[in-house]
Design a protein that fits this description.
single chain; alpha+beta; 2 domains; 3-stranded mixed beta sheet; two-stranded antiparallel ribbon; 9 strands; 19% strand
């Protein structure tokens, strides 16, 4: 069964429960696998009655869930930072990556070049995700939009908050960013092919 909902009617944390319900009347149903406490049957069911259900699970519906993870980042100039310093802000709905204005201009230019993006993923973005995971570990019930996006991405990868302890922050960040070292491997591979 399919149900269409208006765009934007479901946002944030949404609990989904899977149900099997009766569509057409069922009469005289018997089954040897029915639990004894329900009696021997036969059973009759009316439309709308629930026959089975699964434990609900949580999904986080935000526009950013359907975009690359980098959509939760916002590059922001901060004149008080030295040229190669970086600070992360996680108090808003998006994670701010604060950079010296001069260096931010270099990063903005690099974001349009796929080979330079490999370096950005393995430096700034990886550290931003690690910082966010560290904050999420301290405050797992954070209300900011980026928290919901990261939790949903973790759930999609069958990870949860305990994964931060069992696997570590860097391995989880690496999975969330789809193994950023593979981008470097491609970059180095291209470089070696050019030399050959």
């Amino acid at each position: 069964m399919e149900e269409a909902l208006p765009i934007g009617s479901m946002r944030g944390e949404v609990r989904i429960a899977k149900l099997v319900s009766v569509v057409a009347p069922i009469t005289g149903y018997t089954c040897e696998h029915i639990n004894p406490e329900f009696g021997p049957g036969p059973f009759s069911f009316d439309p709308g009655e629930v026959l089975a259900f699964d434990e609900p699970h949580v999904v986080y519906l935000e526009p950013e869930n359907f975009r690359p993870l980098t959509s939760i980042f916002e590059l922001s100039p901060n004149e008080s930072l030295d040229k190669f310093e970086v600070q992360f802000g996680t108090s808003g709905d998006r994670i701010t990556i604060e950079l010296n204005p001069e260096f931010k201009a270099l990063v903005d230019t690099a974001r349009t070049d796929s080979t330079k993006m490999a370096v950005l993923f393995n430096s700034i973005y990886t550290h931003a995700v690690m910082d966010a995971l560290d904050k999420l570990k301290e405050e797992p019930d954070g209300e900011q939009r980026w928290c919901g996006v990261i939790k949903q991405r973790m759930a999609d990868l069958e990870l949860n908050m305990s994964s931060l302890e069992s696997e570590g922050i860097y391995p989880v960040a690496s999975q969330l960013l789809q193994q950023p070292l593979t981008r470097l491997a491609q970059f180095f591979g291209d470089e070696q092919e050019d030399r050959a």
